[in-house]
Amino acid sequence: MASGPERFLAATAHLPITPQRMPDSTHTAAEAAAAVGCAVGAIVKSLVFVAVHPDDSREPVLALVCGDNRADLDALAGVLGARVEKADAKTVKETTGYSIGGVPPLGHPAPVRTVVDRDLLRFGTVWSAAGSAYDVFPATPQQLVDWTGGELADIGNR
Where is the YbaK/aminoacyl-tRNA synthetase-associated domain (predicted)? Predict the structure, then answer.
């Protein structure tokens, strides 16, 4: 089975993405910013949640949040029209194909509903995980919106 970064490269081969392997861990936003040499806010946190709809159906959702923001679960729930729960590690892996700390915003086994923190637009370039806690790639916030089919919303707070 291919490693996370190899799987990510294969899944995104049609896009102009150039992952970079960092010598130090990028598991957290602060670690990633230090490794890349950018502001913490320019790091994209790919966070998986579960939307619990009024009919009790459950839908995994990916929130792309600015590295210096916390996900605002009430705001996310408002966007989704559902109660929001944090996904466990098993759900994250099943939904995205990647482990926590290396979840990319795209390149998953199946499309995942994605909501993008509007605050990312304050940066020209943002950095996202590319399949492991050591691999990242640069993109513009608009590219992430386009590539993920994501919905821009105010889902982050500092």
Answer: 25-146
β strands within 1-124, DSSP E:
20-21, 44-52, 58-66, 70-71, 83-86, 113-117
DSSP-derived pairing of the beta strands 151-153 and 113-117? parallel
CATH number of the domain to which 111 belongs: 3.90.960.10
Q: Give the whole-angstrom CA distance, residue 29 versus residue 39.
A: 9
Which residues in the chain belong to E strands, given as ranges?
A: 20-21, 44-52, 58-66, 70-71, 83-86, 113-117, 126-132, 135-139, 151-153, 156-157
Dist. CA 85–CA 57, nearest whole Å? 13
Range of the domain at 45: 4-157
- Condensed to tens digits (0 to 9), the pLDDT of residues 99-121 reads 998 999 999 999 999 999 999 99
The answer to whether residues 86 and 60 touch, using CB atoms and an 8 Å cutoff, is: no
Q: Pairing between strand 20-21 and 135-139?
A: antiparallel
Q: Which residue has the tokens 């605050």?
A: 119
Q: What is the CA radius of gyration of the chain?
A: 14
In total, how many domains does the chain have?
A: 1
Say what the pTM is. Answer: 0.95
